[in-house]
Structure formats: structure tokens, C-alpha cells
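Appendix C reproduces, verbatim, an entry submitted by the partner laboratory led by Prof. M.T., so that reviewers can inspect both the input and the predicted structure.
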Amino acid sequence: MRIISGELKGKILISPDNNVIRPTSDRGKEVIFDTLSSILYKQHKEYKEIDILDIFCGTGSLGIEAISRGGKNISFIDNSEKAINLTRMNCEKLNINNVNLLNYNFFDINLSITKQADVIFLDPPYKMYDPSEILRMLLLKNLLKINGILIFETSVKNKVQYFKELRLLKKKKVSKSSYYFFIKI
């Protein structure tokens, strides 16, 4: 696992030592950040201006990639202490100090724990959760700002229900993963 662009380009991240944490592939990150950068450009926004949540953060690779591209306000959230520690080690290895690490279950987080985000990376374990239930809960928790961007990663085998509060901007497929890019309306 490596950082693919920005100030930290080429830096290697610490990988998980088991199959419990499934990092997004480099190709997947390329698709995510090429698409996200295009959407932000059309919204006249830059990474340094946006609040980002990386939920089910695992190794922290998506949030760290955003930091490498200029992101300043990023919270990493995972219910696994091991994942939060791995994210912390990756941030320390790269001298990243401007992050918020939250060891919380997704179903317990709310706006008293974190603030609303302009961009959310949401990558729940493929087999553990129903994707539509995760999206429904995210909307109930009101974690995404109006006109905010949600990047939702799931297995190509999973069905994703669409919600009236989320407009699908793009859907991309890489190997066994599907990436949904929604905007909150």
C-alpha cells in the first residue's frame, strides 16, 4: 500500500497483518481520487477547504491520501481498536498530526462526536453489513452536509438501494469492488 499522489506520493503505508482489514487497492484509490477531484473541481472546492470523514477507516489509506492532496480536517472512525491503532501508526510514520482518531462503532457515532463532513469515505466490511442499511443510517445521522460527496465502496455482488436524499453522480467498478459517488441533495 502506497500513497499515489500529492505531497506524500510514493510513501509506503503499514499494511494489516491479517485479512480482517481489507485496504482499498491502489487502482481503487486512483479511481476514487480521480473522480473525487473532478467533482470537487466542478464544485469549485479544494481539499484544503473541506471536512472529511473516513468511516470504517481500516488502515487510514483513503484519509491519508486526501491529506497528501492537501486535506486538513480529517476524522478517522472505526470500531476496531486495531484499525485505529494501524491508522495512528501510519499517520505517525508520515508525520501527520492534524487528524482526529475516533474508536467508535458506526452505529454509535453522531454529531456530538464529530461534525458534518463535506466528503465521506464509507467502506464497511463487505460481508458484515447490508449496504442499504449503512446508507440509511448515514442519512439518519445527518453526517454529510448538503451538497456533500459520499464515496461508498462495496462488493460488486451487493445490491445498493438508492435514497431520495442522495443523487448518484457516478458508479465505477474495479475488480471485485464497486464505488458509488453520491451527492447529498
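The chain has a mean pLDDT of 92. Additional entries are available on request from the coordinating office.
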